[in-house]
Amino acid sequence: xxxxxxxxxxxxxxxxxxxxxxxxxxxxxxxxxxxxxxxxxxxxxxxxxxxxxxxxxxxxxxxxxxxxxxxxxxxxxxxxxxxxxxxxxxxxxxxxxxxxxxxxxxxxxxxxxxxxxxxxxxxxxxxxxxxxxxxxxxxxxxxxxxxxxxxxxxxxxxxxxxxxx
Length: 165
Hints:
This protein is mainly α. 59% of the residues lie in helices and 0% in strands. The protein is built from six helices and no strands. It has helices at 10-25, 39-43, 48-52, 62-80, 101-124, 130-158. α4 packs antiparallel against α6.
């Protein structure tokens, strides 16, 4: 087996990351999702009542899933701005119970804002080293995992595969 030693061009990495980032949240091209199943397309189908509904023993509701994803992205964005984030309250990121329409809209909007900030950062950041590249992969995987969790919750809440996973 031949060993190839080379580096990936910054623009190739950036482009590849952003295509997958947009796939996960807004613009499905079929890389790893089916049409209509991105984060924001999925969240647009969910009412506040559905987002508040418990899905099983000890499992987080959809509103808590969304808050947790936002919390993660917000921390990432703050770190990217050079802020000291202290000791994050990961347990607190899950403490979301019943939400009304305004609260649900606010959760989705703050997630969208955090998503957009990550996108802007990735579009212009020049210091992609091992730590930042690893963080980008981890962030994408984490968000895709929770999108799957949300879609599985919908399968329970709405009662069929077409409205869920």
